[in-house]
């Protein structure tokens, strides 16, 4: 009986013993071996283990055999068992066998170890595979190129390129040089992963392993990342190892150089190809032609076109046509188009488009339209884009009359204008500030065509009409658009409101605001700011315009709120002004001194002195410091209505709060004291004014002359001359009045009094 049959009989006995358990007979492989005349030897054990599909059976037989007298496993048996376990993915048992092998001081063959790494990697055990790879020295095993390739291919598959680069370097340090297959695999993976520098460094370290396929991949990758000169250097190095570039590789280099604008170097490569009897495809030549035209080197492009090493195609002609047209050499381009047709290349849409753009640049709109007619006759499908290009060019040049004629011409040749065409012409009129013509164009062309412009495009026209004061025309256009049920957007409404407000056309403003509300266009911050700046003498009914502001969440600046309060008080709407003040606080915009001055001044004008006095107290609560102008407004009103006791109390409060009177305050006090003939107070004030550098106003001096006694005024005249150099001459001061403003806030102080004539002023030392 042969050894193969004997091994099968032993296996059958083994299977019976391991599958039937207690019911089976005792496994006696010695009897089987004796019966068949086979002796237990390592080759027979290897064969039996190798043939098993069940790794548990294989391991059981292996363990039985090792305990037989006169028998000892060798490295081959361990290798056979490892292969069997790996095939069945029993990696825990593999680790146990490896430790037994190490204990028995058997060496393991590199192919066997590599097989372990390969099967573990195929199961996705990346980390475990790497750990075992770095333990090879424990088992007196050194990795070979096959081992490294196994590990590297696993890492490449997982996309772990950092580890790929690291192990590549370890491989080189171990003096294991990659062959051309391994190098190609590595450089291809690194290039695809964006690690082109690592790929180049690896290739240059083992130039002998570079083959044509690897070189081609590296050249493609380097040119893709705009490093054609590195690719050229590698190509030259590879020639020393009998790896020469082919025509396709040269084309990649030419393309890479042209991407960098290095067209001269690419032309040198073209000459080198000719010297090496290599003919480039027309696509490479077209790349150079295109680059020369982009660099405005059209003459050189034409020369290259005439001596191309291969036949030109339609793209070659189109490149030159476009290049000539960009340089305004349209006649030459048209001749080339004829030559193109004669050589069997019918002009394409791109050819016509290039010439069309050239004619547009030259302003030859009629010829451009004729070319459109030719294109249509040649069966090319046209749309409004071509007409739009011509019209837009004319509009940019300000030739609006030509642009309008082109609209008619387009309809005649079957290329009707579309919405964009009308928008271009409309925008051209607005840019040229020909707003009335734009209005006519809208009424006679745009609306008649049924192509309504986008709502965002109306703002420039309304703004221009407002700037030129064409409010009637603007409102007529506005009404026309409403009739067409065109809903304007918020920015356009803001332009209209702002223009009408500046012009003081408050009734028109109210109408527009009402129509905004009807079509649910809510006013925004810009709308209210325009209303605040309304330059209108008729201030009645302003509260109605600003009611939508309350609770809207819109936050104006403190300055705008202040101006709004001032306007409301001027129109007598004090109650709504208070509402606005509460809204101002609610949205977190605290009033400042200017705001309170506007409130107090407005309330004084309305004779609401108690409310004004309350706001003076509120200033302190809000942390706003009152100033002299604030007190002056109240003082003036108290004197005017005869509440001199309140005026005295207010003046004392002013002094107590450390607020120094200014010239306006002093003059109000002078008029008040003179009215109640408080002469001693007058002299005290004059001395104080002298110290503070303030002079009495004409109105104050006239009030003194009118109200105090002749004797007292005589003394006042003397003080005026001594302290301020003022010489009073009443005879020339009839029927004049003075208007004194308290800074920029409050009420005008208007009184009809003789104005004091001032002589040469000077102060006594």
TrEMBL record:
Record's keyword annotation contains Iron-sulfur: no
Pfam families named in the record: PPR, PPR_1, PPR_2, PPR_3
Entry keywords, A to Z: Repeat
PPR repeats: 74-108, 144-178, 211-245, 246-280, 313-347, 348-382, 383-417, 454-488, 489-523, 557-591, 592-626, 627-661, 662-696
Entry-linked InterPro entries: PPR_rpt, TPR-like_helical_dom_sf
Family: Belongs to the PPR family. P subfamily.
Identification of the protein by name: Pentatricopeptide repeat-containing protein
Record organism: Adiantum capillus-veneris
């Amino acid at each position: 009986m042969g050894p193969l049959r004997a091994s099968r009989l032993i296996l059958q006995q083994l299977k019976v013993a391991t599958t039937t358990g207690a019911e089976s007979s005792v496994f006696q492989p010695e009897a089987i071996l004796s019966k068949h005349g086979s002796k237990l030897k390592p080759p027979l054990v290897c064969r039996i283990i190798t043939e098993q599909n069940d790794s548990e059976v294989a391991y059981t037989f292996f363990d039985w055999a090792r305990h037989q007298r006169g028998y000892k496993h060798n490295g081959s048996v361990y290798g056979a068992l490892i292969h069997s376990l790996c095939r069945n993915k029993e990696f825990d048992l593999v680790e146990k066998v490896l430790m037994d092998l190490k204990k028995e001081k058997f060496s393991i063959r590199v192919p066997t170890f590599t097989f372990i790494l390969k099967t573990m990697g195929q199961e996705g055990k990346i980390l475990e595979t790497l750990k075992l790879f770095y333990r090879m020295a424990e088992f007196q095993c050194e990795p070979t190129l096959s081992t490294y390739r196994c590990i590297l291919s696993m890492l490449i598959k997982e996309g772990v390129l950092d580890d790929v680069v690291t192990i590549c370097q370890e491989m080189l340090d171990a003096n294991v040089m990659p062959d051309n297959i391994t190098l190609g695999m590595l450089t291809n993976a690194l290039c695809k992963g964006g690690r082109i520098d690592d790929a180049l460094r690896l290739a240059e370290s083992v130039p002998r392993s570079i083959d044509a396929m690897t070189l081609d991949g590296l050249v493609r990758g380097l040119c893709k990342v705009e490093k054609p000169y590195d690719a050229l250097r590698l190509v030259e190095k590879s020639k020393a190892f009998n790896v020469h570039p082919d025509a396709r590789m040269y084309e990649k280099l030419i393309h890479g150089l042209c991407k960098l604008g290095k067209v001269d170097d690419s032309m040198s490569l073209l000459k080198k190809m000719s010297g090496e009897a290599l003919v480039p495809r027309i696509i490479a030549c077209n790349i150079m032609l295109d680059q020369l035209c982009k660099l405005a080197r059209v003459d050189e492009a034409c020369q290259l076109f005439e001596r191309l090493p291969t036949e030109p195609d339609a793209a070659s002609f189109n490149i030159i046509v476009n290049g000539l047209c960009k340089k305004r050499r349209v006649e030459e381009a048209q001749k080339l188009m004829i030559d193109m047709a004669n050589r069997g290349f019918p002009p394409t849409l791109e050819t016509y488009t290039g010439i069309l753009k050239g004619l547009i640049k030259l302003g030859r709109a009629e010829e451009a339209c004729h070319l459109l007619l030719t294109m249509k006759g040649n069966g090319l499908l046209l749309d409004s884009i071509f007409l739009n290009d011509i019209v837009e060019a004319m509009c940019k040049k300000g030739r609006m009359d030509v642009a309008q004629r082109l609209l008619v011409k387009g309809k005649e040749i079957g290329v009707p204008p579309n919405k964009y065409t009308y928008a271009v012409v409309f925008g051209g009129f607005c840019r040229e500030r020909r707003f009335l013509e734009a209005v006519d164009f809208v009424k006679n062309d745009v609306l008649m065509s049924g192509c309504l412009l986008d709502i965002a495009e109306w703002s420039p026209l309304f703004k221009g009409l407002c700037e030129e004061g064409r409010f009637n025309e603007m409102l007529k256009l506005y009404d026309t658009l409403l009739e067409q049920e065109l809903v304007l957007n918020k920015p356009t409404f803001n332009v209209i409101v702002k223009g009408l407000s500046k012009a003081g056309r408050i009734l028109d403003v109210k109408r527009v605001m009402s129509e905004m509300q009807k079509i649910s266009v809510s006013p925004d911050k810009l709308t209210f700011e325009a209303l605040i700046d309304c330059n209108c003498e008729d201030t009645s009914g302003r509260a109605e315009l600003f009611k939508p502001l309350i609770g809207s969440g819109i936050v104006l600046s403190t300055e705008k709120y202040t101006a709004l309060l001032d306007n409301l008080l001027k129109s007598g709407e004090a109650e709504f002004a208070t509402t606005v003040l509460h809204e101002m606080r609610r949205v977190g915009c605290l009033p400042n001194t200017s705001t309170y001055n506007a409130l107090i001044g407005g309330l004084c004008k309305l004779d609401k002195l108690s409310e004004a006095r309350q706001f003076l107290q509120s200033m302190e609560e809000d942390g706003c410091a009152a100033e002299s102008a604030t007190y002056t407004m109240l003082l003036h009103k108290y004197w005017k209505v005869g509440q001199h006791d309140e005026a005295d109390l207010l003046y004392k409060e002013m002094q107590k709060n450390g607020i120094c009177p200014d010239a306006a305050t002093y003059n109000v006090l002078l008029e008040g004291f003179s009215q109640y003939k408080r002469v001693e107070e007058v002299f005290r004030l004059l001395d104080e004014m002298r110290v503070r550098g303030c002079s009495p106003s004409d109105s104050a001096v006239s009030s003194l002359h009118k109200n105090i006694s002749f004797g007292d005024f005589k003394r006042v005249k003397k003080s005026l001359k001594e302290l301020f150099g003022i010489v009073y001459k009443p005879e020339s001061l009839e029927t004049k009045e003075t208007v004194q403003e308290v800074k920029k806030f409050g009420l005008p102080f208007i009184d009809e009094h003789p104005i004091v004539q001032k002589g040469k002023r000077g102060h006594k030392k």
